[in-house]
Write a sequence for this structure.
DNA sequence: TGTATTTTATTTGTCGACAAGAAAATCGCC
DNA sequence: GGCGATTTTCTTGTCGACAAATAAAATACA
């Protein structure tokens, strides 16, 4: 046995030099997007260092990266915190994601390739499977992958990167939404996604645009309804 | 005298705790955007630490932030380098900046306020002064501030942030462009900017859009011409 | 002489420690 | 008892050092 180290700690695997930051970044990122770490909650560097079994340095670098992605807020000489969701300015988010749905769909319909279409369909298969299994977290992640694949098919890395950022913001809102329904998932989106794939595969730019807008409207309407309901019950977060 | 420290080093001012990262970040950022640090050049952490009179830790954090902004590329266990300019895929950049010129102009025309208009006009005054003084670096920075102010007037922070990123990429290309003309600056853009201000102030959305597109086309045409010329002479960078 | 291999040197990634700053707790005073 | 000043505790920002990984140089060999 090689793991005869500290009696208390769960033996953490030897990691390759340089991989620490990546692990922490991805772990925290997922936890933030899944709302495992609630918006506004403080982030203690020492606590994370102990949890991941490394010093504060790589933790710190991961936090800086997350701050650059807008997932973490930092104040000088104060604890960092999980980025809050600005419920008062959600309409800006809705504007942006609607535009990007339309734009990425349009570009994908123009520039699609067989390989890109295959990736889109693969993501959609994951998505459908997650919905069938009523697995909200997997579904939300697959939804992001689906739209990310469409953006990739469009070919413009500037748009793709921006869209990913907006989609991640949306992941937190979607999680909030499905939490409020005990994570029961509707089938209807699977059909909408299939329609988008068909339009892109056919190279129908205008139809892809129209479906992108409809998809965005659908999501915006739901989240708005959720917020209105929450506001009646108790203040959000 | 309090500065009786190292005989060699230019005495570096005492800095407040936490300000180190900001100083390094802003300094390097400006040097990268002004092409003082040429694309692709390696970045030595120790060298920077000596230059800024601090340890490697804050240097490193600044580099991570710059990498998040796409201004620095990092390879594992290898020196970081100033982000290269991908000349083969410039059309994606041109697409993105054209869209954002139009979009920010439109939104500014819709949502303008007196305060925002004042900021736009102030940036334009700086721009005109720099052109009159034939100061290329100041002009390029002021051009960025001008369009950033328009984006701010539009009110959507998602668009503003994305636009800033694209504009920064453009700053490097503009610098390249004016370097090739020995930094002699044309007057024509001052007029174009004035026209954009007028359209926004009048709330004329379609005209703002049209001017944004024309402005983008102008810049795209120039940079394309520069690249075609460079390609004839010698390979770019 | 050219190529493969070992050795050296340079540069990064990580660590533990210390000090500055802020929040919390304690104390003194009215 | 309430409020302000002081002390304490806690967390971050910075540092110097060490080890791993890579690049460069030197060496061995065909």
């Amino acid at each position: 046995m090689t793991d005869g180290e500290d009696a208390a700690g769960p033996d953490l695997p030897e990691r390759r030099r340089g991989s620490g930051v990546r692990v922490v970044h991805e772990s925290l990122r997922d936890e933030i997007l899944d709302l495992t770490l609630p918006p506004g909650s403080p982030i203690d560097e020492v606590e994370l260092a102990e949890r991941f079994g490394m010093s504060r340095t790589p933790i710190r670098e991961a936090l800086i990266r997350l701050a650059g992605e807008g997932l973490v807020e930092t104040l000088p000489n104060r604890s960092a915190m999980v980025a809050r969701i600005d419920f008062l300015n959600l309409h800006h988010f809705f504007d942006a994601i609607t535009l990007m749905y339309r734009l990425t769909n349009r570009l994908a319909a123009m520039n699609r390739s067989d390989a890109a279409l295959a990736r889109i369909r693969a993501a959609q298969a994951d998505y459908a499977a997650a919905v069938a299994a009523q697995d909200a977290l997997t579904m939300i992640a697959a939804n992001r992958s689906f739209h990310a694949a469409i953006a990739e098919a469009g070919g413009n890395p500037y748009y793709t990167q921006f869209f990913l950022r907006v989609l991640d913001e949306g992941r937190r809102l979607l999680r909030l939404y499905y939490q409020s329904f005990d994570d029961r998932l509707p089938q209807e989106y699977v059909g909408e996604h299939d329609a988008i794939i068909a339009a892109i595969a056919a190279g129908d730019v205008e139809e892809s645009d129209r479906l992108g807008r409809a998809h965005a409207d659908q999501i915006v309407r739901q989240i708005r309804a959720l917020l209105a309901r929450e506001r009646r019950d108790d203040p959000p977060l």
Observations:
- Residues 16-18, 44-46, 56, 60, 76-80 of chain A lie near DNA strand D (CB under 10 Å from a C1').
- The mean pLDDT of chain A is 90.
- The first strand of chain A starts at residue 42 and ends at 43.
